[in-house]
Amino acid sequence: MIMERFLRNNRGHALTQEERKALESAVSEIKTLAPRKTIVRAREILHQSTFLMEGTMSRYIDDTNGVRQLVAIHFAGDFVDLHAYPLGILDHDVATTTEATVAIIPHAALGKIIRDLPQIAPKLWFATLIDAAIHRAWLFRLGRLDAVGRVAHFLSETNARLMSAGLSNGHRYALGLRQTDLAEICGLTTVHVNRVMRKLREDGLCEFRSSWVDIPEPARLAARGQFDPHYLYFVDERGGSQRTCPWGREPAD
Amino acid sequence: MIMERFLRNNRGHALTQEERKALESAVSEIKTLAPRKTIVRAREILHQSTFLMEGTMSRYIDDTNGVRQLVAIHFAGDFVDLHAYPLGILDHDVATTTEATVAIIPHAALGKIIRDLPQIAPKLWFATLIDAAIHRAWLFRLGRLDAVGRVAHFLSETNARLMSAGLSNGHRYALGLRQTDLAEICGLTTVHVNRVMRKLREDGLCEFRSSWVDIPEPARLAARGQFDPHYLYFVDERGGSQRTCPWGREPAD
DNA sequence: CGCTCGGTTGATGAATTTCAACAGTAGTGG
DNA sequence: CCACTACTGTTGAAATTCATCAACCGAGCG
C-alpha cells in the first residue's frame, strides 16, 4: 500500500508487484511530520531517501536575503529526494508544506534492491528524470510567462499531477498552499499573487478558497498558462508507442 | 579521446578507463553539425543519444508565439540528451548553437554496456542528475534574481563549467552566444540584455566582446549573481567526504 | 479581548518590455 | 570597388508589469 501511487501512470515504467513489494519492505520507518519543517539541508551527506505517502512537500533554494524559490513541489506518491541516492548530497533544502506522512528508505537497502532486481534501476532513473522534466516546465514558466500565466500554468500542472494520483477529479482539488507559497513557486511577490488570483477569479478561470482549487474549465486555464501535460509522461488514452526503458532486455529495439 | 571530458571532475563518479572505452566503442557515428540546427524535436521517439565533443548546443522550449526559453546549454564533454535513453521521448527540442562535433550513441549499445558493466549505470544516472541540479539553479536564477544578477549568474556558472572542461582559465573563455541567446537563457528581451551587458561592463564585472567573455574578478561577478558552484558537484580541493554512488557494492555504507 | 496569521487593497516607484530607429561589420554580387 | 543585404549590437522614449511600502480586514485562538 505504501507506494501504490509511485510511477502508477508512467508509460512503460510502472513497477511490477515484486518491485513495489521490494521497495516497500525496504522502508525503515514511517512517520508523520509537522507542517513547514525542513527535513533536509543542502550539502548534508544523506544515507536515506524520503517517499511521500500523504501531504505536500517542497524543495527550495533561498537567496542570500532569505527570499525563497521553490524548485519542486511534491504530492502523495512522489519519491521526494530519490536523487539523493546517486548524488549523496543535495543542492537544495527539502521541507514539508502541510503535515506529511513519509516512508524512509535507506540507501543501503535501495542498493540491495537494485542488485537483486536490476530492472528496477531504469524505472528509478526514470522517476528522477520526470522531476527534471518538471524543472524544465518550471523554467519555461518563469522565463516566458507573465504573472497570470505562471499561476495558471502551475495550477494546471498540479491538477494534472493530482488527477494522476487520484487526488483531483479534473475540476477540483485540495491544495494546502498559501498565496506566499504560490509566490515562491512562481517567482512573484505575495501581494502580486493576490492580485493574480483575483484576476483568475474574475475571468472565471479558477477559484482558490480555503485550500480548495476549483477549475470550471480546465482547458481554458491551461490555455492561459500555455500548459500541455506531455512533459509529465503520463500514459495517454491515445496509446501511441509506449517505449519502455531498455536495459535488462536484449539490444533488440 | 572522444569522451575524455565526460564526468571528469565529478566526485566519485569519474569513469574508469574500461567504462570510457566501452562508451567510446559504442559510438556509431561522429559528425559535425552546422550552427543553429535543431537536431531533436520534442515528442519524437529516439533511439540514440548525442555526446557533444566540440561546440555548443542548447535545449529549449518555445511558447505558442515562438518565443524561446532555453532550459539548458551544453559544452564540450556534455552528454546532451542522455536522458533520452530512459525517457524515450523528450519534452523539449535540442539544437546546435555553434558548429558542433557530436558522437552518436545508439540506445541499444548503451543497454549492452550497462548489462556488461553495471557499475556504469549509477554514473550515467548521476550525469543526468547534474543536469537536473543545473535546472534548479536556473530556476533560482529566473525566479529570484534581477536582470543583471541573472546574466552574472549565468556567466559565472559557465565559467565554472568551462574551467572544469579545461576551456576557461578562470578569467576568460570563448562563448559562441549572441545577446539574443543570453536573453533566451535569462528570460529577458534582447534589448534589455544589451543594457545589462553595458552595466556589467561599466561596473567592471564582465566584458563580452566578439565571442570572448572576460571576467577580471570572478568572485565579484559571482557575488552579483549569488553564484555558488556547489550544485555542479565538482570535486573540490578541500576534499571532504567524496561519497561515491552505491550499487554494485555491498550494502555497507 | 487582544493576538497572530493569511489574505486584501491602495498608492507609488522601479524594473523591464515594447516599439522604433540606427550603427557596425561581413558577405555578396554587379 | 561599391551597392546592397543581413545580422548583431546599440540607443531612446513610452508603456506596462510587477515590486514595494503601508495599512487594514477577518478568522481562529489563547
TrEMBL record, chains A, B:
Keyword tags: DNA-binding, Transcription, Transcription regulation
UniProt-listed InterPro entries: cNMP-bd_dom, cNMP-bd_dom_sf, HTH_CRP, RmlC-like_jellyroll, WH-like_DNA-bd_sf, WH_DNA-bd_sf
Molecular function terms from GO: DNA binding
Pfam name, any one: HTH_Crp_2
Residue ranges crossing the lipid bilayer per the database entry: none
GO biological process: regulation of DNA-templated transcription
HTH crp-type domain residues: 145-219
SUPFAM superfamilies (alphabetical): cAMP-binding domain-like, Winged helix' DNA-binding domain
Signal peptide positions (record): none
Superkingdom, taxonomy of origin: Bacteria
Record-given protein name: Helix-turn-helix domain-containing protein
The organism of origin for this protein: Croceibacterium xixiisoli
